[in-house]
Amino acid sequence: MERPLGVQNKLDPGDEVLVHFKICCPNIEEETSVYVIGSIPKLGQWKVQDGLKLSYAGESTWQADFVTSINVFPMKYKYCKCSKTGNLSLETGPNRELSIDSSKVQPKYIFLSDGMLREVPWRGAGVAIPMFSIRSEADLGVGEFLDLKLLVDWAVRSGFHLVQLLPINDTSVHGMWWDSYPYSSLSVFALHPLYLRVQALSENLPEDIKKEIQEAKEQLDGKDVDYETTMAAKLAIAKKIFEREKNLILSSSSFQKYFSENEEWLKPYAAFCFLRDFFEISDHSQWGRFSHYSREKLEKLVSKDCLHHDIILFHYYVQFHLHVQLSEAAEYARMKGVILKGDLPIGVDRNSVDTWVYPNLFRMNTSTGAPPDYFDKNGQNWGFPTYNWEEMSKDNYAWWRARLTQMGKYFTAYRIDHILGFFRIWELPDHTMTGLIGKFRPSIPLSQEELEREGIWDFDRLSCPYIRQELLQEKFGTSWTYIASNFLSECQKGRYEVKIIVPVDIF
């Protein structure tokens, strides 16, 4: 066995042995060192200041070695962490022990790979809150990204270590208060303009805009958020500031850097927002020749030669400032030692940028939900298309990797809502109203043999629902014959099927 680098000449002939310590310590703060202390003088006799300081070897591993006499064995030792200010954290559990079998040939080298430094896992408390609820005197009608700095200060004073937010992506699908639901994303990359601090868009706001901001603040500073009015006020003010400073901002090196790093999603997002407003609907199937996305169409839509180019630039401008403001808040949280945790919804809105650009990644004729349970006897139908995992796998899940990378710019941790959906999802036909007639995807089917073994012989009953005459009489009384003749067809004697195409789950 080769000797460790740097120790080839440390040993003298006779009774000396080189001991090499190695420990894994992934949970360590800046300016903190790792020591090994123990029962012998060369390990400090349990005094940290006289112990053996380990060096960082990469990949959370620390190591050091020393030469000692055979006579010191057996010896006891432990690892510990010591901060620059002198705070000591000794590993838990019994002392580690190293001994030598005197009946065997005495070793010259002992290599100790001691696994993980034993310590109680770190635990911390936090607060979960919607972004729109983090109100301050500076906001305009709703919590804003820069308000996070105040919440971080409060968390530090209160002993909290984590701030968890609801989703913060743009949800502007309907152009009304329905969009206040944070789990129905228009884009999984774009941030919501609702959380923009308009007075931070410029250091040189004219008096008329300052007055408009103040009047809007006074109007919207209520107990509840007026979503529609707040969105309208912020976008109107932002457009006025944009008209004044667009050339300065859009030509800046910081914007150019942001654009080059984000144009892959930023261009489609801006084009989608323009088309949504032009056609007055987010359902891209209603956009005529723009219903089907292509790179060629996109480049024409965002071209500098288009009459609507300023509209495209405005969406770039808003997203850039949202990025700047959230980045400032996220960096502030890191500096204060507070974890900022984001929320990653399992679905995207059916009428979203992502389904327009990547329709092959979604099963657009389906809907996501949850089966009937104690919480809701009818189950749940969330309206989001399910994922086409087979198609996603062809490019090594590039869409997911890009989505997580984007979140990683701001968040240290993620909440995935819900993690079960990555393994199996309750999938419904897209025309259904409730969560009743779905099935898990993927799922393990039941064989005919298994069904027969359980005494089930009427297989059609499991897949082709019918209504018994007794049920019609119970529900409709003497009118049951009218219902049967006008809306149903008799498939077997006393059994009826729905004649017209309606969602089966309405019955």
UniProtKB/TrEMBL annotation:
Catalysed reaction, written as an equation: Transfers a segment of a (1->4)-alpha-D-glucan to a new position in an acceptor, which may be glucose or a (1->4)-alpha-D-glucan
Gene Ontology CC terms, in alphabetical order: cytoplasm
InterPro entries noted in UniProt: Carb-bd-like_fold (IPR013784), CBM20 (IPR002044), CBM20_DPE2_2 (IPR034841), GH (IPR017853), Glyco_hydro_77 (IPR003385), Ig-like_fold (IPR013783)
Organism lineage string: Eukaryota, Viridiplantae, Streptophyta, Embryophyta, Tracheophyta
Entry's Gene Ontology BP terms: carbohydrate metabolic process
Record's protein name: 4-alpha-glucanotransferase
Keyword check for Cell wall biogenesis/degradation: no
Subcellular locations according to the entry: Cytoplasm
Pfam families per the UniProt record, alphabetical: CBM_20, Glyco_hydro_77
Domain CBM20: 11-124
Domain of life from the UniProt record: Eukaryota
Keywords, alphabetical: Carbohydrate metabolism, Cytoplasm, Glycosyltransferase, Transferase
UniProt EC number: 2.4.1.25
GO molecular function, one term: starch binding
Stated family: Belongs to the disproportionating enzyme family.
